[in-house]
Amino acid sequence: MITRLVKMNFHPDKVKTFQEIFETNKKLIASFPGCSSLQLKRDINQPTIFFTISEWNSEADLENYRKSELFQNVWSKTKVLFSEKAQAWTVQSA
C-alpha cells in the first residue's frame, strides 16, 4: 500500500473551479482500479492550498492511473488553475 500526497496552490479566483472539477471526478478517481481511498484537504491558514491524499494498492496501480485518460483529462483542467507548480510525494508506512 502506498499513499500519494499532492499539494496544489490555486489562484484565488480559480478555487471554486477546482472544487467543481474535483467534485465531478472524485468518484471516478476513487473507483479506479487499485485506488482504495481519496481525500481532499484544505489548508486552514491558506485557503488557496489544497492537498489530495490517495491510497493505492501498489506503485503500478498509481502509474496506471497517471497514464489513464481520466488522469490526463482531470490534470489538464486542473493544472492551468495553479498559482505555482504542484508538489507530489509517494510515501509508505515506515
SSE order and pairing:
Layout: E1 2-10, H1 15-30, E2 35-42, E3 49-56, H2 59-66, H3 69-79, E4 82-91
Antiparallel strand pairs: 1-3, 1-4, 2-3
Helix pairs in contact: 1-3
List keywords for this structure.
alpha+beta; four-stranded antiparallel sheet; globular
What this model shows, in words?
The protein has three helices and four strands. With 94 residues, it is α+β, with helices and mostly antiparallel strands. It has a four-stranded antiparallel β-sheet with strand order 2-3-1-4. Strand 2 and strand 3 form a beta hairpin. Helix 1 (15-30) packs antiparallel against helix 3 (69-79).
Distance between the termini: 11 Å
Mean pLDDT: 97
Unreliable runs: none
Structural class by SSE content: alpha+beta
Radius of gyration from the alpha-carbon trace, in angstroms: 13 Å
Strand order across the biggest sheet?
Answer: 2-3-1-4
Helical content band: 25-40%
Tell me the number of helical segments per DSSP (H or I, 4 or more residues long). 3
Succession of helices and strands:
EHEEHHE
Give the number of DSSP strands. Answer: 4
Mind describing the biggest β-sheet? 4 strands, antiparallel
Anisotropy-based shape = globular
Tell me what portion of residues adopts beta-strand conformation: 35-45%
